[in-house]
Amino acid sequence: MTEQIDAGLVAEQIAESGEQSGPDGTRQIGQARRRKEDARLITGQTRWTDNITLPGLLHMAVLRSPMAHARITRVDASPAMQRPGVMAAFSGADLAGELGSLPCAWPVTADMVHPDHPPLATDEVRHVGDAVAVVVARDRYQAADALEAIEVDYEPLPPVLDMEEALKDEVLVHSDKGTNKSFLWPFDGGDYDAAKAKADVVIKRRFIQQRLIPNAIEPRCVVVEPIAAANEFTVYSATQIPHILRVMLALVTGVPEQKIRVIAPDVGGGFGSKLNVYAEEVITLIVAKHLGRPVKWTESRSEGYQATIHGRDQIQDIEIAATREGTILGLSVDLKADMGAYLQLVTPGIPILGAFMFNSIYKMEGYRFRCTGVFTTKTPTDAYRGAGRPEATYAIERIVTELAAELGMDPMELRRKNWIKHEEFPYETIAGMTYDSGNYEAATDKAMQIFGYDDLRREQRERRDRQDPVQLGIGISTFTEMCGLAPSRVLGSLSYGAGGWEMASIRMLPTGKVEVVTGTSPHGQGHATSWSQIAADALGVPFEDIEVIHGDTASAPMGMDTYGSRSLVVGGVAVHLAAQKVIEKARRVAAHMLEADEGDLDFADGVFSVKGSPEAKKTIQDVALATFAAHALPEGMEPSINAEAVLDPENFSFPHGTHLCAVEVDTETGFTKIRSYVAVDDVGNVINPMIVEGQVHGGIAQGIAQALYEEAVYDAEGNLVTGSLVDYLVPAAPDLPEFTTDRTETPATSNPLGVKGVGEAGTIASTPAVINAIVDALRPYGINDIRMPATPERVWRAIKDGSSGGDRAAAGTVAYGGAQTAVTSGDTAGGAE
Amino acid sequence: MTRVEVMVDGVRYADDVEPRLLLVHYLRDTLGLVGTPIGCDTSNCGSCTVHVNGVSVKSCTMLAVQAEGAEITTIQGLGGTGDGSLHPMQRAFHGEHALQCGYCTPGMIMAAIDLLGENPSPTDDEVRQGLEGNLCRCTGYQNIVRAVQAAAAEARGDRTIDLTTAEANR
Q1: Cis peptide upstream of residue B19 (ω within 30 degrees of 0)
Q2: Structure pTM?
Q3: How would residue A326 be classed by pLDDT, with cut points 50, 70 and 90?
Q4: Among A152, A144, A146, which Cα is nearest to A81's?
Q5: CB–CB of A87/A61 below 8 Å?
Q6: Across the interface, do A733 and B133 touch by the CB < 8 Å criterion?
C-alpha cells in the first residue's frame, strides 16, 4: 500500500512543526524524525483489513473443535443453510479436493515427519480450535449465529499434552505417521566430550520455555475479492508476508500465481504471529471462488488464541563445563520443542535458529546441540518475537549465572572472562557463525555505570545482612543475537524453502519527487520514515519528497517481507543500493546536459557539478525532468533513471547489548517489583534513534512479560485454560517499569550502512535479565531457579519449598512431566568424568 | 429492530438496529466510522474506546440502543479531519513516538484525554493506572506515558509538545 499521508492539514501540521530537511547537506540518517506513518494512525484514517468493505461483501465464521483430539464421525453443515442470511456452509469434506494442505517451508531434516495439515479437518481434530466447518452469511452476527446449527459428531481420543509422554508414542497425534517425533536435528561444534573431560565443574540444568500467545493487538483478518470467471483473486490480509503468502496460496490452491494479488494494508502488529499461511486465508479464497462474491473473515481475540500460532514451548536440558577458574570449556544443549498439532510455515525451523545462539558471546572449545521436534494436541507453535533466539539466550544467560554462583564468582566477572574481546572481531564462533563486529566491553561498562552496579550490590548485602523481608536481586543479560535473515546460501544449507534477499526500487518522478518501493512489509516498524531518511541522504532530496510504497504484490512485486529483524539490514540497505544505481544513471544524463565527462562530475547533496567549475550544475530533480522529457538523452540511453536493487546479505546481523535488571522481591508475598532496568544496546549505526528506542522499549516489555506474566496453560483434557485476554495476562501500563535505554554504536561491517537489526533485541535480552535478578534475590533461600512466569504465587511457593516454584497451581493442570523435579543444584564433577 | 438516535462526531444519525448490536459495530458497520478498531472480545484491550457524553467508554461494552440520545466522539471526530486541527493529544502521541503499529492508538488517545480531564497534572504512576484498561503490545507504554505528560504540560502552559528531531534518548 502507498503510505497514505493525508494531503492537507494533518501532514501540514506535522511538517510545519518538525525540522525541515532539504538538499542542504542536512543528514537525515541519525535524526529522530517523527514518523510519516503517524498522520493516519492518530486520526483514525486507517486501512486495517477489517475496515475494508466491498460491494456484496459476505462474512465467514469458522466452527472449531471443542476437543483436543477426536475422530470426526459425522459433519452436517446443511442445517446452517436454514438460518437467516446464510449463503453457504461447508464442511471439510465439502471442500477437501480444493483446500489442499497448509505449507511448511522448513523441512529441517530429510526424514522430518511432516503430516498433512488440512485447512478444514476431515477425519480427525488435533487441537482445540482446529477448524471443522464454515458458514458464510450477509453479516458477521448472522454467520456467528448459524455456526450453532452445524452438526458434528466427535469420538474422543486421548489428548497428547506432555512432550516427554508424547515421545513414548503411546497415543499418536497423527496415527498414520507412527510417531510423535517430527525430527531430531543435531549439530556439533568442536568436541564437547573432550571439553567436558577437561572440566573441573559441570552444571546441568533443565529450563522450561513456557508457551506464549503473541497477541498482536489487531486480530487476524482476511478479505478475498474474486473475479471468479477469470479465476482472479485480490487477497487483503493482516499479514507480515504478502509476497510469501502469494506464492504459497498459488501452490496450495492451484490458482496461478499471476492471478493472485496480495495486499497487506495497515497491519496492526505481528510479532511473528502474522508470519504464516493460515487455514482461514486459504478457506476464504476458496469460498469466495465458490460464491463469486467477496468474503471476509475476522478472528475474535479468543478464537485467535486457539487458531493463531503460539510461541516458545521448549524443554531445555543444558550442561555447561568449565574450569575452576571460570573458563568455559563447553556447552551441551538438548531441546525438546513442542510443534503443536501441525507444522505451520516455519515451525520446525524456530528452535533450529537457536542452535547458533546458545553459545552466544562466549568462547568455548566444544558445543553439542540436539533438538527433537514433538507433536502434541495443542495449537501449533511458530515464530514469536525472537523465534528461537530468546530461548537460547535465556538458557545460556541463566546457566552462566548459575556457573558463577557455583564458582563463587561475580556473574559479570565470569562473563568478562569468557566473552569475545573487542579486538578479536571478526570472530568465528563454535557454532560456525562469523560475528562481524561487537564491543561487549563498551556496552557493559556503560550499562554498569548507568545502573550503579556496585551500589546495588552493597544494598543487596545490607538487605541480606538485616534479613530484610524485601530482598534485592540483580540480573544480568549480556546478549547477542543473529538476525537480518538472511544469506540465501545459509538458508539453503538449513533446508529452508526460500532465500533471504530483499528488493528495493526507486522511481524518480517528473516533478523531482521520489517513490521508494520496498519488498519489506511493515506493521509498526516505521519503514516509511526510516527508508525516507536513507533515500533522502543518498539522493540528496528532501525527506518530505519521498513516498514509500509497500505491502502490495502489484505495486511492490518482489519481496521477502518483514520478520527476523531483517527489514533494515536487508531491505533498508537495498534502498541505499538502489539509490546508488539511480545516481549512476542520473550522472550520465547530467554529464550530457552539462556537456561534461561523467568522470568530471561531483555529486553531493543532490547536485551534480563539474569539477573546477561549480557554477555548472544540475540537480537530480533537473535530471529527473530531463529524463522524463527525453528530448536530449545520451546516445543509446533508455529514458529512465529509475533503478532496482536486490540485496542478498553476505552475513547475518549480530546486534548485542548489556541489560541489567534490579528487582525487589517481597519474600512474604512473592511479589516482584522491577526497581530499575537499564539496557545498553549496540545495533550499529542508527537511522532513527527515536524508532530504535521504541523498538527496544517494546521488546523489553515482551521479554518481561514472559518472565513475569504470560503463559498459555492447557488443562488435562487439552483445553486452553488461558483462553482469552481475561485469563492471559498481557501486561498493561502499571505492570511495567520505566526503562533506561542507551546505546553504543559499533558499526556492522557486513553492509554499507553499518546497521544491525533491532526489532527483537529487547525481547531476547530481557527475559533472562529479570529471572536472573529474581534468582539472585532469593539465592540465600536455597533457590537457584524459578519457573516462568515468576508469578507471586510461584515465588512464594519457591521460598517456602526452596524449589523453583513448580507449575501453575491450577486444578487439573498438566505440565511437562519431569520438568517439575529436575531443577536441583548442579553436580560438580572431577576432571576425570 | 429498535430506533436509535445519536450524535456522532457532530453528525446526527437515526437508525433502526437490532437490540443486540454493539455500539462498536454500529459505529463501524452501520455508520462506516472504522477509525475505531476492535482488538478483543472480552472488553480487556480498550482499542475501541470512544467518548460517550464526554466520558471514555469501551464501545464494545455498550449496546447501540444504550447510546440513545447520547453524544459520541470517536477518534475521527477529534481532529485532523476536514478543517479541524489535531487535538493536542494526537500531536503528543506523534511527538513522543507513542505509537508503533497504531492499532491501540485511537482507544489510547481517547482514554488519555479523559484521564487528563479528570486529573490535569497526573504523576507517571497515575497515568499508568489511568490507562490500565488499554493494552498496547508495541511500545512498552513508556512513550505513551511521555505523550500524556507532554499533552498535560502543554495544557498547563508549561511547555509545548516537542516535534523537533532532537535525540529521542532521554
Answers
A1: no
A2: 0.95
A3: very high
A4: A146
A5: no
A6: no
